[in-house]
Amino acid sequence: MPEPSNPLDPEQGPIAPGGGYGGGFDLAAADAQTLEKKPGHDQESGGPAGKPRSLWSDAWRDLRRNPIFIISALIILFLVFISLWPGTIATQDPLNANLAKSQAGPEAGHPFGFDQQGRDVYTRVVYGARASVTVGVCATAGVVLLGSVLGGLAGFFGGWWDAILSRISDVFFGIPVILGGLVFLSVVSNSTVWPVVGFMVLLGWPQIARIARGSVITARQNDYVQAARALGAGNSRMLLRHIAPNAVAPVIVVGTIALGTYIALEATLSYLGVGLKPPTVSWGIDISDASTQIRNAPHMLLWPAGALSITVLAFIMLGDAVRDALDPKLR
Amino acid sequence: MATSAEMTPVPEGAGAQQSGPLLDVRDLHVEFRTREGVAKAVNGVNYSVNAGETLAVLGESGSGKSVTAQAVMGILDTPPGYVTGGQVLFQGQDLLRMSGEERRKVRGARMAMVFQDALSSLNPVLSVGEQLGEMFRVHRGMSRKDSRAKAVELMDRVRIPAAAERVRQYPHQFSGGMRQRVMIAMAMALEPDLIIADEPTTALDVTVQAQVMDLLAELQREYNMGLILITHDLGVVADVADKIAVMYAGRIIETSPVHDIYRAPAHPYTRGLLDSIPRLDQKGRELYAIKGLPPNLLHIPPGCAFHPRCPRAQQVCRTDVPPLYQVSTVRASACHFWKETLDDAGTDQN
Amino acid sequence: MGRYVIRRLLQMIPVFIGSTFLIFFMVYALGDPVSALFGDRAPDPATAAQIRHDLYLDHSLGAQYLHYMKNIFTGDFGTAFSGESVIDLMKHAFPVTIRLTIVAILFEIVIGIAFGVITGMKRGKPVDTGVLLLTLVVISVPTFVTGYVLQYIFGVQLKWTASSVSPSAPFNELILPGLVLALVSLAYVTRLTRTSIAENTRADYVRTAVAKGLPRRRVITRHLLRNSLIPVVTFIGTDIGALMGGAIVTERIFNIHGVGYNLYQGILRNNSPTVVGFVTVLVLVFLVANLLVDLLYAVLDPRIRYA
Fold it and tell me: Keyword set for this entry (chain C) (predicted)?
């Protein structure tokens, strides 16, 4: 078992901007103390044959040995698979209702039993993955794209652009997510996933923007970036070649974890009746339906809730493992 | 003024106090159990300090000099660090066989430590006065008010100006030199018999270094304390130390009175260290540097640990660990070829 | 310090205006409050126009917003479509939610910090690994799932608590809902405390404290905890605002008639004055809580000086 994970910071709370990810190897400053405690960590010892260890190859080597990473990655691959081809493991129709079987328990061919309207719970759990994964992936892609572009530019150019952007992101931080979702989606909602995705991008981008901004500012202050600037490197070259690679690691980590939380958020909004709407098959809707029947038929709640929890857990654990691998502190 | 010996409980076998050295470290072994393997940081270190004497422990990063001090002080990070053998006799008592609580009472009161980086070694959120006063409150059971007065007195003693006002300030409000004075004041608070100073001036400006070093030496004389000065800076050593122990790869490889070692080192490693000091009379000449890197403590070379970097290495050095040869009544060297090294130094002088 | 507070208060103004306007825009411009009044029936155009005029809805959105804010600062939050004044609704709802938030914060402080300290000091031990995995699970399982599961276990199966809360919502009935509301933050507090403790146990000043011969207890409480808890305290502070706004799900599960319940009903029924009024107060609470946390930070950490 590798050294246990170093924790996930609260998203809305103290994530140190860029701290500890990009270029954080402070070996030069390592005092006698750390060297005496950590012998054999001399990076310079790589002779002509020795390939210098990079942040990424180091991280990858760690990840391959981390059982948490492997388990969560397998779960995620499986989820992606069933959301693309749910028919391969569930042969029935998720909308096929048989009222005679309402709330019935498990039987042959229906391992999870039936829901209120007599639909097969197993099939609905399998088909529900698609909505969750779609929302999660699309929302994360949008948030990461918008957030890192806006945040990166704010960090790079500073000044007015930065001040305005900071105030705007303050506005979005000031609105509680579920509350904002209720208000927004109760007025702009249709039966597709796009309003939900759009809302998440709208409220989610400042989180990534702050991180991107922070790591760009940190990276800018690095000596080699200053040197590149002194040598006359242009803005675009600086951004792409020197600064972007440093900002990528924290954005990936937070993005992965955020993907999990977006899936949970979609389910929560669907549960509150403003997210996805039937006939879309969504775990959140099924949990909401089941919640009124919890005394009579707890199995209706158990299976979609379990699937949802495992999915979110897989993404959060993956992000956590990647964070550990990329963050050389606390090893 | 009461001496510390009267104030601290007299240990068993206190009769040995008068005859033996103040601190006698015997065959100390420390290892770090890490994910990569077991690093042998200290491999059989022996040294002793008498009251009023200054021992300089010299060595590169990773030589085990700080780890030895931490083991003596009882502040080793465990895990990963473990003392695996040896004795630390302090005033005749083996510290390693004391209970945790007995040992705690020795720390701070009878032996104290000055750390390298005063900014990070002082608690950033407590005022300097609270941190100094804490010594009196914990070890002497003084009231908050009395300990505050003691703190001001201490700050005066280490010549911090306007002590009465600055006692309320926090470490970050002090300059580097003043902060190190606070550290020294804290170590001096209970007038201990032994002070271990781990690179006390390394983090300071050159001009301030001398002042801090002078203060330390002055206080040592005043209270007749033993002082262990851990450093990698030969320049600091020459002025204040009585004797020197040079460490390499967790071993002492040379011990000597301070002046002899400058005149004629008896170990090629010491020789290399001395040669790599820039000197005014050798301007223009290329500066000497010991080739190679300090050994990886996970894989210490067999034989003499220094042999891969030693200009004098022979076959025997690769296989046999050199014992500490007695060079004279007061000197020792762990080199198979100490005689040759010593002779070279004689001929090379001019 | 004084100048810093003034600057921060000034900075809060655009954020306050931005947040409230955003909500105002969504409720009044994207939704249609008047048609909501009539439910499914088609309103008579003349009546609808009259209502619009009465509610100041026949002006431009900007004018409506200004009109609304002017009223708010004279203490008039308007009247809900049900006929009750929004202020009266708040008088009933806020005490309930504040009680719920207090219970939740207490859980965070007591359980979260305790777990964090234990795991931070026993890093790598089974108890650490176990608690860490537990926090990941707690963070991953959405509140509405844990809420129903705990309600089912404690309310339905064990019958330790009532499964729904009575309208007066006394503290003893809010214990389980408070725990549910706190759970995710509690997991964060645990992890944050753990990291902070773990980082600080290796700090030089802790080593100094040991070298001073302080008893272990004093090293931990006075040096280690005093420093490690600074980020934790600030997190819990900012969480107050978030918890009050985030109680919608918890209040729905346990049928608690607090802020979240009123908001939820208001949104579903398109009851615009209720929604905008409650949100405005929540935004204010959130902003003030953040400011207080920043000031608290300066008190706890003397290195931070606001000028």
Answer: Cell membrane, Membrane, Transmembrane, Transmembrane helix, Transport
Bridge-partner residues for B252, per DSSP?
Answer: B247
DSSP state of A222: S
Cis peptide, bond prior to residue B79, ω within 30 of zero: yes
**ipTM of predicted assembly, 2 dp:** 0.82
**What single-letter DSSP state applies at residue A19?**
T
- Inter-chain contact A31–B34, Cβ cutoff 8 Å? no
A191: left (phi over 0), alpha (psi -120 to 50) or beta: alpha
Q: Which residue of A has its CA nearest to B80?
A: A37
pLDDT in tens, C92-111: 888 999 999 999 999 999 99
Are B137 and B144 spatial neighbours (Cβ–Cβ below 8 Å)? Answer: yes
B332 forms beta bridges with B255, B326
DSSP string, C18-31: HHHHHHHIIIIIIS
Chain C: touching chains (3 or more CB pairs < 8 Å): A, B
B79 touches chain A (CB under 8 A): no
C-alpha to C-alpha distance for B296 and B68, rounded to whole angstroms: 17
**Selected residues 310-329 of chain B with any CB under 8 Å from a CB in chain A:** none
Distance CA A125, CA A319 (A): 24
Neighbours of chain A (3+ CB pairs under 8 A): B, C
pTM (two decimals): 0.77
Task: Give the one of A3, A174, A188 whose C-beta lies nearest to C30's C-beta.
Answer: A188
Task: Tell me whether residues C192 and A188 touch, CB distance under 8 A.
Answer: no
Rounded CA-CA distance C262/C248 in Å is 9
Cβ-defined contact of B39 to A45 (cutoff 8 Å): no
Residue B177 zone, left/alpha/beta (φ > 0; ψ -120 to 50; rest): alpha
Residue B199 contacts A, CB cutoff 8 Å? yes
Measured CA to CA, the distance from residue A62 to residue A57 in angstroms comes to 9
Q: How many angstroms separate the Cα of B180 from the Cα of each of A102, A125, A236, B119, B185?
A: 78, 65, 46, 8, 9
- Residue-wise pLDDT for B41-79, tens only, equals 888 888 889 888 899 998 888 788 888 999 998 888 877
Which runs of consecutive H residues, i.e. helices, occur in A113-272? Answer: 121-157, 159-173, 177-187, 194-221, 223-230, 235-237, 244-271
Instruction: Mutate one of C201, C205, C206 to test the B interface: name it (highest B CB count within 10 A).
Output: C205
